UniProtKB/TrEMBL annotation:
Coiled coil: none
Source organism: Litorivicinus lipolyticus
CC terms in the record's Gene Ontology section: cytoplasm
Molecular function GO labels: phosphatase activity
UniProt name for this protein: Serine/threonine protein phosphatase
Source species, domain of life: Bacteria
C-alpha cells in the first residue's frame, strides 16, 4: 500500500502547500502559522490534512529538514506528498536498477540536485527515495485535484494503467527514465506543457540555462497568440509573443475547463500576492527558494476558489 490518502476523506479540510525546495525552516513556520503542532516527532492537526504539491527537494539550504518534516507528517497520517519533477530526478539518480543509476550523475541535473546530495546522508537519501516510490503523482478528491505542474486527462489515463491511484507500481518505475509513452505522460504532469520557440530560436532563462522552449498555460479559454500562452518568469524573445497560434499548436496542448474540479499545482515560480489563475485553477509556487513566499491554500470541501484562503510566510529569514 502506498502513502496516498490515509487520514483523508471528502469532508476533510485541506492545506495545500507549494514548492518548498529545501526551505525547511520556512516550512516549519508555515505549518505553525496554519495551526499545526509539533508532537511525537511530527507536525499534526486534529482536523486538517496537508498536501505537499511536490519539489520539497533541491536548491534550498535545508533540504533534509524539509524532507524530514514532510515524511514524518505522511507517516503520521497527516499529509500527502505529491511527487514533483525534482523528486523524480533525484529518485532516478539514487535508485537505479541495482546496477547503475537511472540518470547519469554527470549530467546537468546533478547541479540542481547537489543541495539534496549535500544535505542528506547517503543511506538516508536511499531510504527516502525508496519510500517516495509509494507517494502519488496526484491527489484526486470529489471537488479538487492536486498535481505538481499540469492535469492532462490523456496523460492521467495512460499513467492509471500502471498506477490506478497515481502511485507507479515498482516494476514500472524504471520506465520513467526511458523515453516512451509512460515517461512522456509523467513528464507532462510534473513539468507541464511547453512549446518550442519558433525558427529554432533559444533564450537564456534567469538561472542561466539556455532553452529552446517555453512553458505555457493550459487552462486558458481562447488563447490567440504565443504571448497569451506563455507562463514563466522569463519574457519571450522579441517578436515571438505576437505570433498567432495555429491549429497544430492548439491540438497539442491539454486543456482545463472552468467546469472541472478545482485544480492546484506548483512548479511555475510565481511572485507577488497569491491569487487564483482562473475561477478553478490555483498555482501555489511563489518562489520560496528565491527568498519570496512559501504559500498554502486552505481548501474547505464545497468552497469556491477565493483569494482570502491563502496563508504564507516570508522565506527570506531562511538565510539569516
Ligand atoms: Mn517543479
Amino acid at each position: 500500500m502506498g502513502h496516498a490518502a490515509r487520514g483523508l476523506s471528502n469532508r476533510t479540510v485541506i492545506d495545500l502547500i507549494g514548492d518548498v525546495h529545501g526551505c525547511g525552516q520556512s516550512l516549519g513556520r508555515l505549518l505553525r502559522k496554519l495551526g499545526y503542532e509539533y508532537r511525537d516527532g511530527a507536525y499534526r492537526h486534529s482536523e486538517r490534512h496537508a498536501v505537499f504539491i511536490g519539489d520539497l527537494m533541491d536548491r534550498g539550504p535545508r533540504v533534509r529538514l524539509a524532507c524530514q518534516i514532510a515524511r514524518a507528517m505522511v507517516e503520521a497520517g497527516n499529509a500527502t506528498w505529491i511527487l514533483g519533477n525534482h523528486e523524480i530526478d533525484v529518485m532516478g539518480l539514487v535508485l537505479g536498477d541495482g546496477i547503475e543509476p537511472y540518470l547519469d550523475h554527470t549530467k546537468r541535473r546533478l547541479g540542481k540536485a547537489a543541495a539534496t546530495f549535500n544535505s542528506i546522508p547517503g543511506p538516508e537519501l536511499l531510504s527516502l527515495c525508496q519510500w517516495l516510490q509509494d507517494c502519488p503523482l496526484w491527489l484526486e478528491q470529489a471537488d479538487f485535484r492536486a498535481v505538481h505542474a499540469c492535469w492532462d486527462d490523456h496523460a492521467v489515463a495512460r499513467i492509471r494503467t500502471v498506477a490506478p491511484d497515481g502511485i507507479i507500481a515498482r516494476q514500472h518505475f524504471g520506465q520513467l527514465y526511458r523515453s516512451g509513452e509512460l515517461q512522456r505522460a509523467v513528464s507532462r504532469l510534473v513539468r507541464g506543457p511547453s512549446l518550442p520557440l519558433p525558427n529554432g530560436q533559444s533564450m537564456v532563462s534567469r538561472d542561466g540555462t539556455a532553452r529552446k522552449s517555453f512553458r505555457v498555460a493550459f487552462w486558458l479559454d481562447e488563447p490567440d497568440t504565443l504571448g497569451d500562452l506563455v507562463f514563466q518568469p522569463d519574457p519571450l524573445p522579441p517578436g515571438v509573443a505576437e505570433q498567432p497560434l495555429n491549429g497544430t499548436i492548439r491540438a497539442g496542448l491539454p486543456s482545463y475547463a472552468s467546469n472541472q474540479p478545482h485544480l492546484f499545482f506548483g512548479h511555475y515560480w510565481r511572485r507577488g500576492r497569491p491569487a487564483p489563475l482562473a475561477e478553478n485553477v490555483m498555482c501555489l509556487d511563489y518562489s520560496a527558494v528565491l527568498r519570496e513566499k512559501l504559500v498554502a491554500y486552505r481548501h474547505r470541501p464545497g468552497q469556491a476558489l477565493i483569494a482570502d484562503q491563502f496563508e504564507w510566510v516570508d522565506a527570506a529569514p531562511e538565510w539569516t
